[in-house]
Amino acid sequence: MITRAELHGRTRPRALQMFGMIPKPVLMLAGLHLIYAALILPAGSLGYDGKIALFAFLSAMTLWAGTRLPAGYVALALILFIILMRADEPELLYRSMAEPVVWLMIGAFVLGEAFTRSGLAGRLTRLALSRFSTKGRLVDAIAALLFATAFFIPSTSGRAALAKPILQQLGSRFSSREQQVLSVLAPAVILMSTSATILGAGSHLIGIGLLETTAGQSISFVRWLVWGIPFAAAATWITVLAIRLTMWPKEELDTVVREDTPESAPTPQKMSIPEKRTLLLISLMLIGWMTDSFHGYGIAFVTMAGAAAAMMPRFGILSFKDGIRSVSWNLILFVAAATALGTALIDTGVIDVAEEKLSGFLMAAGVAPEWLLVLVLAAVSVTSHLYITSHTTRAVVLVPTLILFARSIGADPATAVFLGLVGMNYCLTMPVSSKALLLFYEEGDASFSAKDLAKLSCLLAPAYIALMVLFYFTYWNWTGLRL
């Protein structure tokens, strides 16, 4: 007869064996989610809806960075989770496809395909290859070109849309790994160069507008250039250097660019009719993007209008069917669902609580010495993209807090706003933090992964904060920027 003790001794090892069969990554993910739940449940400042939304957001960040699950599926599943848990209405899902960023990216894909099919991208590629023979010089040229676009295209997503087809044309000249690195380098340079000019991002204009209405101060276009260009150039140089040292294959930068592809054929002197149409369309698009604040239609609408013109029967550059096929719909669904996750944080009050806690933290830091004050301000603004994914929302939430903080300690609100806006421009940790990153994310084998981005950000985020502090106590102080 088997005793109860013997039966218990037999069943226990079986249970342990079954537990041991579960893969360690799954156990780690489950453990992290249990920790999230344990930390969020007791939070008295959040209601039920807010707790569910925050848990879903933390889960999304974990699954994006720690698994190979499709990013779009993760975002969509967690939006459905929020709705099933009655933390938000089904309209959260439906409204996600009506977001401007969704239509901006659809238009950008169509324009990119038109740019490629017309032959204009190939012409520019051959021109670049004829002047820069090695991969290292070509990478430097790409970085310089992307940096320069900050001065005449007032949108990071617009710059990314312009750069994408050119990089696709250059892709055949680089190995698969090098193409992945380029897919990180392009949006990284675009984001780092944003601080060069007041037109570099819509958040700058929002921040200056809030500064004018709330504090009666402003930052002129020229003064921003004086403060912004050197910092943006230094940040871009550090970014390119970090990507080269940590991600680019060893001893490949001095390699001569391959010329054994169809693109190496001589460039025709005369432009074809499709090329002329595309050049005219791109020129009109640039004018539309640059004059966004005047005509008021928005960058997404301008982009879709350009895409519709590119697909116009008889007079367009490509057919409607080809244009729609060029859209990466898995990426579009990811963008829509990820944007809805950010919307859920706002709707459920999570952002309001974060703003309240952040304001209290900054007020407590107000009695600190100046160097610590600048360090805290830089750290808070740089890390804000981790919990407020929208660049515009970051400005709307943080700028009033920074103005209130500056006034309470007798500091200059304009300086606090400038430092905050420059810090908010850093958003390289997650693809969802920037539309420029999303345009290059999950595009086949020649794209970066969320893990690549997180590793790079572990190096660049501290470097960016340190650079802000260094510039404040040197160049910015010398040119009149003081708290």
Give a brief rundown of this model.
Keywords: Membrane, Transmembrane, Transmembrane helix. The protein has helices at residues 4-20, 24-40, 48-66, 71-84, 91-96, 100-117, 120-131, 135-148, 156-170, 176-192, 202-215, 221-246, 273-290, 292-295, 299-310, 320-325, 329-347, 350-364, 370-383, 391-408, 413-424, 435-440, 450-478.
Write up this protein:
With 483 residues, the chain is mainly alpha-helical. The protein has helices spanning 4-20, 24-40, 48-66, 71-84, 91-96, 100-117, 120-131, 135-148, 156-170, 176-192, 202-215, 221-246, 273-290, 292-295, 299-310, 320-325, 329-347, 350-364, 370-383, 391-408, 413-424, 435-440, 450-478. The longest helix has 29 residues, at 450-478. The radius of gyration is 25 Å and the shape is globular. This is Anion transporter. It is a multi-pass membrane protein. GO terms for molecular function: transmembrane transporter activity. It is found in: Membrane.
Based on the model shown, name its key terms.
483 residues, mainly alpha, 23 helices, 71% helix, globular
